[in-house]
C-alpha cells in the first residue's frame, strides 16, 4: 500500500507544484517588469489571468507585488499539503497547517530561485541566444537577486556570483525554512 500512497503523493505534488510555479512565474515576471512581448510571458499571462483577474479586485497589487498571484501560490501549496495529509490518514490542526504551508511557500520560492539561477547560468555558459524567450525571462527574474554581487566575484572570466547566491539560498532553506516548518509540524500534531 505505501507504493500507491507514494504514487498518489507524487502526482499531487507534480500537479500542485506546476500550478504554484505558473503563478510564481507571473508574480516574479510582473515584479521584475519582464518583457510582455516574450512568448513565455504571454503564455503565463494567458493561463493565470482568468484566475487572478477576479481575485485582484479583492486583493490589489502592493507596489509591484501581485498579491493575488502570491495568494494563489500559497493556496496551491496549502491544498497540496492538505491532500497529502488526508491521503496519509491524518488531519493536522489548522494553526500548524497554516505555518507548515507558509514554510512550504518560503521553501518553494527559494528552491524556485535556485533552479532558475542554475538554468540561467547553464544557458549563459553554453552561449545560448540571449534573445531566446527562456533566457530572457530567466535573466529578468534572476538579475535583481544577482545584481548586488554581479562583477564583484570574478576570477578570470568566470563570475561566481550565481554560486554564492545559490549557497545563500540553500543556507536560507536550512536556517530559516526548516525551523518554521518544525514549529508548524509541532503545532499540527497538537503539541
UniProtKB/TrEMBL annotation:
Membrane-spanning residues: 6-29, 65-88, 108-126, 160-181
Domain of life: Bacteria
Keywords carried by this UniProt record: Membrane, Transmembrane, Transmembrane helix
Protein name: YggT family protein
Organism expressing this protein natively: Dyella jejuensis
Lineage summary: Bacteria, Pseudomonadati, Pseudomonadota, Gammaproteobacteria, Lysobacterales
Amino acid at each position: 500500500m505505501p507504493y500507491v500512497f507514494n504514487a498518489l503523493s507524487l502526482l499531487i505534488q507534480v500537479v500542485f507544484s506546476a500550478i504554484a510555479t505558473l503563478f510564481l512565474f507571473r508574480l516574479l515576471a510582473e515584479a521584475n517588469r519582464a518583457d510582455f512581448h516574450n512568448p513565455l510571458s504571454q503564455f503565463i499571462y494567458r493561463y493565470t489571468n482568468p484566475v487572478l483577474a477576479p481575485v485582484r479586485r479583492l486583493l490589489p497589487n502592493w507596489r509591484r507585488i501581485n498579491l493575488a498571484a502570491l495568494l494563489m501560490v500559497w493556496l496551491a501549496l496549502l491544498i497540496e499539503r492538505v491532500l497529502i495529509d488526508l491521503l496519509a490518514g491524518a488531519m493536522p490542526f489548522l494553526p500548524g497547517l497554516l505555518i507548515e504551508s507558509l514554510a512550504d511557500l518560503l521553501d518553494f520560492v527559494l528552491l524556485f530561485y535556485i533552479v532558475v539561477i542554475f538554468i540561467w547560468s547553464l544557458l549563459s555558459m553554453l552561449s545560448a541566444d540571449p534573445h531566446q524567450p527562456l533566457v530572457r525571462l530567466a535573466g529578468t527574474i534572476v538579475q535583481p537577486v544577482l545584481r548586488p554581487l554581479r562583477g564583484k566575484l570574478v576570477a578570470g572570466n568566470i563570475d561566481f556570483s550565481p554560486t554564492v547566491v545559490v549557497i545563500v539560498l540553500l543556507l536560507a532553506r536550512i536556517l530559516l525554512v526548516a525551523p518554521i516548518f518544525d514549529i508548524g509540524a509541532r503545532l499540527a500534531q497538537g503539541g
